[in-house]
Specification:
7 helices, 6 strands, 10% strand, 6-stranded mixed β-sheet, alpha/beta
Amino acid sequence: MLVFDTNVLLSTLDLFSRIVEGGQWSVVVPLPVVTELDGLSRNPSPLGDAAKAAVVYLEARIRTHALCLKIQTSRGNYLTDLLIRAEQLDFRATRGVGLSAGASADASTSGPARTMDDLILDIASFQAEHFVDRSLLLGMDGDAASTEGRTKVLLVTLDRTMRLKARARGIDAADDKELSAILGV
């Protein structure tokens, strides 16, 4: 399962689209990523244009590629479309209420989520804690579907600090170049 950060959709939408169109991977885009893209799309700059393109892509593919593309809220729910995508974010609430209700309260996950990055990391943690092997559903053969010793959830971000925070939580993380090398795309 691949969980994508905002900066990857802004900088390498072509890589993201090849992965989604390939249909071999479960791809999760956290709703906080969509929220960031919505905010950035209002900029009259190349960054704004890239954000608009990413939002248009997600809106077009969320239904047609529902088997492999998921938009997940910070409460652990999946959206079937992006018509209603507002979510009340309470940065004062203790983390674990929605996503990690059964998670252990260690230093890396206790306390309030302070940033959108914290919410994205919480979603990646949720995916790791509640991993369901969907490889057979996505058309992989039985031998390739074995998850023994394999990465179950990979956070894809260009943000070095976020990759370090993810690894501190026990979540594997990679940038776009590492992902391309891993997937051979």
